[in-house]
Structure formats: C-alpha cells, structure tokens
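Entry 14. Structure prediction run on the chain below.
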Amino acid sequence: MLIEIIFKLSLSGWSKSKIKTFEELDEYFSKQEKISILKKDICSKLGIFRPLTAFEEEYIVKWTEEYNYDMSVIELALKRSVYKSNAGFKYYDEILSDWHQKGLTTPDEINNHLASITEKKARTKQVQNIAKQYEFTQSTFDNFDNLYDN
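Output returned:
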C-alpha cells in the first residue's frame, strides 16, 4: 500500500501539496476521493459521459475547497440551468460564485434568497401593472381659442 501511495504522489506532488506526514497524506487522499465522487455525481446529473476537462475539474475543486460547497448546494446551481440551453461549467461557476459572495452556504439560505428574488420580481410586476392603469398621454392644444368656446 505504501508503495502504491508513493507512486500516486510524486515528490514534486508532495511538496506542492505540502504533505509531510502520513496523516496529511491520508487527508489528501480522502479529499481526492471526495472530489472524485462529486465529479461522478455532477457528470451523472448533467448527463456528461466523457471525462471532464482540466478546466471543468478546476471549477469543481474551487466549489468544494474554496467555497466549501457540498453536492446539495452544487445541485441547486445545476437545477438553475434546466431551462437554459448550452449551460456550462462557467455558468454554474457564476451562480455558485454569486452565492459565495453573498455569504450563502446552505441550501436553506439559498432557497430563501431565491424565494426573496422571486417575491421582489412579483412585487415589481404588480407595481408596474398598477402604474399602467394611471398612465395617460399629455394633451396638446394647437388652438387655444377653440378650447374656451362654450
């Protein structure tokens, strides 16, 4: 097993990942396994049957390691693209980055945020409909003499 581990991580990989102890090595492999499972789940949800590109994998690493998102949050972002044709990893990254910037970390927080957006849109539409009722066109009078002819 130790020989297998040594082959999996080259010396440059060890230094790059700052691995100095077996505990750190264990942690590294558990992280890699978690990301691998996540990649399979994402590919399954998106119907991708090809290996992911290095750039697509970088997005997944960013979402999991930098943003600390799990599959439940990532899945919400994937669902946002149901009606969008040609949605790709850049689109999902924009959604997840926006949520991260807003400090949204759990599915409940995200669902509440999305509900508030929907509510704001509904209120805006309602105000616009009310405003349309009171729209009028300004009358112009070219002949003021005829205006008071009664």
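Helices lie at 2-8, 11-16, 22-46, 54-66, 71-79, 89-101, 107-133, 144-147.
Filed with the rest of this week's runs.
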